Amino acid sequence: MKGLYGDNICIIAPHPDDEVLGLGGSISKFRENGINVNLLIVSGHLPPLYPQSSFEITKQECLKSSNILGINDIQFAEIPATYIHNEPISKLNGIIQSFIFNHSPDTVFIPFPDRHIDHKLIFESCMVSTRPTGKFWPKLVLSYETLSETDWNAPYIEPVFIPEWFIDIDDHLEIKLQALNCYQSQIKNNESRDIEAVKALAKYRGSQNGYKNAEGFKLIRCLS
């Protein structure tokens, strides 16, 4: 597995819990195979839309979840959710680019440009930050889906998530569910991203590629 994904992986997540929903099983599998996984949480439930206490809750949930998955390094940029558009694009690009350059990852996972405006803006910035130019760039870039956002895009009018890259997570699904369960503030009374919905998606993605349970991704770039 190291030969394909390399020794270091970076994940760019718009909000706490996106990383688990999108690739929690894969993260656990990477760590089991000795691959370093580094996580940047760009935005969060912060004022003016949310009280500071909401961010502190999700941050602690994220730290607990990351500990279960075995994530090596986690950073929070602390840009208020849905207010990313107010930030200069050069600042957002710089935050993401610095995180990637500081870790020199072989593989980068980025959000799919779905219904959530934060996901769209961060996707655009990630595309700038992972361009194959300059002294360093990641060899593999993959986009992940996020239940309750990616599945709400309008078919044929907006980009639709149809994966062509799959990772078998059958041995790691339970760890993913344990990590997701840390996010009680996000999954409680939220049927679109609860445990059963995540299990159903894993089974469906597995059925698409000969696995029992899997996570699906869009291939952005693969350089040999």
The outline comes out as globular
> What's the Cα radius of gyration?
16 Å
What gap, in angstroms, lies between the N and C termini? 15 Å
- Helical proportion, percent range: 40-55%
Indicate the proportion of strand residues. Answer: 15-25%
Secondary-structure element order, as H and E? HEHEHEHEHEEHHHE
Text of the CATH class: Alpha Beta
Strand arrangement, largest sheet? 3-2-1-4-5-7-6
Number of strands: 7
Poorly predicted segments = none
CATH fold-level topology: Rossmann fold
Number of domains: 1
Number of helices: 8
Task: Describe the overall structure.
The protein has a single domain, classed as 3-Layer(aba) Sandwich (Rossmann fold). Strands 3-2-1-4-5-7-6 form a 7-stranded mixed beta sheet, with helices on both faces. It is built from 8 helices and 7 strands; from the N terminus they run H-E-H-E-H-E-H-E-H-E-E-H-H-H-E. The model has no long low-confidence stretch (mean pLDDT 94). Helix content is 41%, strand content 21%. Helix 3 (52-69) links the parallel strand 2 (36-44) and strand 3 (73-80).
